[in-house]
Write a structure and sequence with these properties.
mainly alpha; Hypothetical protein af1432; 64% helix; 0% strand
Length: 284
Amino acid sequence: MIISNPTLTVADLLKGDIKLASPPIVYLALQKVVEDPTKTAKDAAAVIESDAALALRVLKIVNSAFYGFPAQISAVATAITLIGMRELQNLVLATVVIERFSDLPGQLFSVHDFWAKNLRCALIARELDARMGKNYTDTAFLCGLVHDVGQLVLYRRIPILAREVDLLVQSQLPGEIDQAGIEQQVIGFDHYELGAELCRLWKLPPVVVDSIRLHRYPDYVGNNAKIATLIRLADHFSRVDNPYDVLTANGFDLSPEQISQVMDKTHDEFEEIFKLFFPSLQKS
């Protein structure tokens, strides 16, 4: 029997939880620096360094295989000059989002497995973009990382219904799973709608919001359709060993060999980068 509550709305789940709905303060502070032409890398570094733990984690990531710089980088300001202020801003946002959703009540949902899957998606998205013209250098990784964030909101706010969705998904045959469709049936909306609205409340760029909002609409050809398609493809490859022919439908001019190289590279990077992004989620 399906437990459903079609009277729920996206707004209902984003009310009454200040920690959830309020934009990340450090991200917004960095946004002001980015948008102010009188500000410098030192100003941005000062914002990050006001949180010592955050600054340390950012430097560890910058010095990892994620960027592959030949020399050790010891200052946040130096990191900004090397990777750019906007990319560092998105790197900070990624760490803040992970921290905000690092634990959930109950044992119904593996946060570790969730972030492992989404980190794979983010790494694949970043590498696919690098091979297709670097159109989303600053945002591909972030979009891949947060594209399923609505699922975490469901488990945080309505865990019983979220578990009902999971049980129905598990009952589907491989290849026939439509998680978002099941969410629509059980809850009245899907986690992409919810995640997009959360990111809008957080005042994230439209490219991030749309990469989530458009996930279920592969035929859409308007603004930000390309990044949505990129994330959809990265998500596809992050789940299982999917066949190459999916690329044809998405119009990407990448050979099977190139896709194999992407998967090998991201596989090699994954373990080290997971430890850096998710130190609190390491399994004993």
